[in-house]
Specification:
alpha+beta
């Protein structure tokens, strides 16, 4: 009898993203977040969207060859670097070694994503700004040397 109730309890916890081993403080934090976190969530979503707008504006102004795709309900932004005229591998090396930035190379998601990079924009604006400065500087040097 108790085994069935425990299994139902475990199933419910798993459906809520909790583990059976969660302690009371973790459960209280999750309950509070679900019940009172609406304003915080709204602020976080707005902050991420403002980061997206900043990414779009910055690249449009300083590296117009890079095309920022519209967000699709996520904090991950896709940027198309095909117009730089370099291979996906060269782009990845340029970003890693010259810009000292590690993004998600589109190639890891399949052939059709070659030449794209994925940015995590759920970060402090200062981090995003520094990342973009490094990318723009490295790309500008590359463009000057190769065109």
């Amino acid at each position: 009898m108790f085994g069935v109730e425990r299994n139902e309890f475990k199933t419910t916890l798993q459906a809520l993203g909790l583990s059976v081993g969660a302690n009371i403080f973790g459960m209280l934090a999750i309950k509070t977040a679900y019940n009172k976190g609406k304003d915080w969530l709204k602020d976080v979503l707005n902050y991420i969207y403002q980061n997206y707008l900043f990414l779009k504006q910055d690249l449009s102004q300083y590296l117009p060859e890079a095309i920022v795709f519209p967000l699709e309900g996520t904090y991950l932004a896709w940027v198309d670097f095909h117009s730089l005229g370099i291979t996906s591998k060269e782009l990845d090396l340029l970003l890693k070694h010259q810009a000292k930035v590690l993004l998600d190379d589109g190639g890891m998601f399949g052939e059709c994503s070659q030449g794209f990079q994925r940015f995590n924009i759920a970060c402090p604006r200062k981090v995003l700004e520094e990342t973009l400065n490094r990318i723009v500087n490295a790309a500008s040097i590359y463009i000057q040397e190769n065109h």
